[in-house]
């Protein structure tokens, strides 16, 4: 369970635990060590998906040897420079380009964190980020996973061209309320709950007209609607044309037992079984992302700290909303990774 005390953390890269306990005038405190041992801080990696991209997102990771190595390997697989493509706003608007680029940035961030001495115990990725989580955990290899991501991006791009759609986040709306909005606003069009992000943030996905009606209805109920920076109605039946191709790509991947549990989107529960991880990954494209359930399951499993590895800070914010009092930190640059590892004198509130 998350620590409810006022805590500070320090890093032990020697492999020898050095637990200590302190007292502060402001209230009970504890000091825990990042390193090896059974009673140390349990850390989970979170990997963002499409919608978190921004121009220049790969540039920071080129400056660190571990991050640069990932981007160089990715560029070799893809046949183009990932960092260069990530500087082009037009290319980042293409699902077929942005998905491999985001996947590569997620893994670059993770490798930098590992190189700086952070040890992880669990992982989850939001939509596309699930591929990164599986690679980070060692369940699948980087190159084949990237090739599968390329196929996934192309299939989703083609499906979105065939059946245009959109996604919008309803702020202040629970998944149950969103389902009711979808039922009312759908009117025979595709409209469904796509992401159960937090108790009061739910993403709906569907045809453009249906999403616009859902936004209008949500606003009439006092909620806020924020259109997502994606090019289709993902995690909805509109992606059905892409499903067969994505399943074939996933079927070609060799799954192994991961180093630590991964929480798939489709179940929201930690798993280490290769066949379960494969099955859940193969069908998450048309299933809702059960993110709130995932965050709670990880906290229930003892996670103390969530680290968002990759572009943006959306997942860190969502983790705090899903698990009040949990520590969640976005790491979007090598400097931020070093600060997290070397200067963990942070206060958990």
| Radius of gyration from the alpha-carbon trace, in angstroms | 20 Å
Task: Note the overall shape.
Answer: globular
Number of distinct beta strands: 11
Average pLDDT:
88
- Poorly predicted ranges (pLDDT <50, ≥5 residues)? 1-39, 345-349
SSE-based structural type: alpha/beta
The end-to-end span amounts to 14 Å
Structure description:
With 349 residues, this protein is α/β, with parallel strands linked by helices. It folds into two domains: 43-161 and 237-342, 3-Layer(aba) Sandwich (Malonyl-Coenzyme A Acyl Carrier Protein, domain 2); 165-227, Alpha-Beta Plaits. It is built from 14 helices and eleven strands. The protein has helices spanning 59-62, 65-78, 82-85, 89-92, 95-115, 129-136, 142-162, 175-186, 208-220, 240-251, 274-283, 291-300, 314-322, 334-342, and strands spanning 6-11, 23-24, 27-34, 43-47, 122-125, 165-171, 191-198, 201-207, 224-227, 305-309, 327-331. Helix 2 (65-78) packs across helix 7 (142-162), helix 5 packs parallel to helix 6 (129-136) and helix 10 (240-251) packs antiparallel against helix 11. It starts with 5 loop residues before the first strand and ends in a 7-residue tail after the last helix.
Question: What is the element layout, followed by pairings?
Answer:
Blueprint: E1 6-11, E2 23-24, E3 27-34, E4 43-47, H1 59-62, H2 65-78, H3 82-85, H4 89-92, H5 95-115, E5 122-125, H6 129-136, H7 142-162, E6 165-171, H8 175-186, E7 191-198, E8 201-207, H9 208-220, E9 224-227, H10 240-251, H11 274-283, H12 291-300, E10 305-309, H13 314-322, E11 327-331, H14 334-342
Parallel strand pairs: 1-3, 4-5, 4-10, 10-11
Antiparallel strand pairs: 2-3, 6-8, 6-9, 7-8
């Amino acid at each position: 369970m998350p620590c409810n005390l006022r805590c500070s953390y320090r890093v032990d890269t020697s492999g020898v635990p050095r637990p200590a306990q302190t007292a502060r005038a402001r209230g009970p405190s504890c000091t825990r060590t990042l390193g090896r041992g059974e009673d140390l801080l349990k850390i989970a990696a979170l990997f963002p998906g499409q919608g978190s991209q921004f121009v220049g997102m790969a540039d920071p990771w080129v400056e660190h040897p571990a991050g640069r190595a990932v981007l160089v390997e990715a560029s070799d697989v893809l046949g183009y420079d990932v960092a260069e493509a990530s500087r082009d706003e037009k290319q980042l608007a293409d699902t077929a380009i942005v998905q491999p680029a985001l996947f590569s940035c997620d893994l670059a961030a993770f490798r930098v964190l590992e190189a700086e001495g952070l040890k992880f115990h669990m992982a989850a990725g939001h939509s596309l980020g699930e591929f990164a989580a599986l690679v980070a955990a060692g369940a699948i290899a980087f190159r084949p996973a990237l090739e599968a991501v390329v196929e996934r991006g192309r299939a989703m791009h083609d499906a979105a061209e065939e059946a245009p759609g959109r996604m919008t986040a309803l702020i202040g709306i629970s998944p149950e309320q969103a389902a009711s909005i979808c039922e009312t606003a759908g009117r025979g069009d595709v409209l469904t709950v796509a992401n159960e992000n937090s108790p009061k943030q739910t993403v709906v996905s569907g045809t453009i007209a249906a999403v616009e009606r859902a936004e209008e209805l949500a606003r009439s109920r006092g909620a806020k609607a924020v259109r997502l920076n994606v090019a289709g109605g993902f995690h909805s039946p509109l992606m059905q044309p892409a499903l067969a191709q994505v399943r074939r790509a996933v079927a070609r991947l060799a799954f192994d037992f991961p180093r630590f549990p991964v929480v798939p989107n489709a179940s929201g529960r930690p798993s280490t079984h290769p066949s379960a991880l494969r099955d859940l990954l193969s069908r998450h494209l048309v299933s809702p992302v059960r993110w709130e359930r995932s965050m709670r399951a990880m906290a229930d499993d003892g996670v103390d700290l969530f680290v968002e590895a990759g572009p943006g800070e959306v997942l860190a914010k969502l983790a705090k909303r899903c698990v009040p009092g949990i520590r969640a930190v976005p790491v979007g640059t090598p400097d931020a990774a070093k600060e997290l590892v070397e200067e963990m004198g942070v206060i958990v509130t």
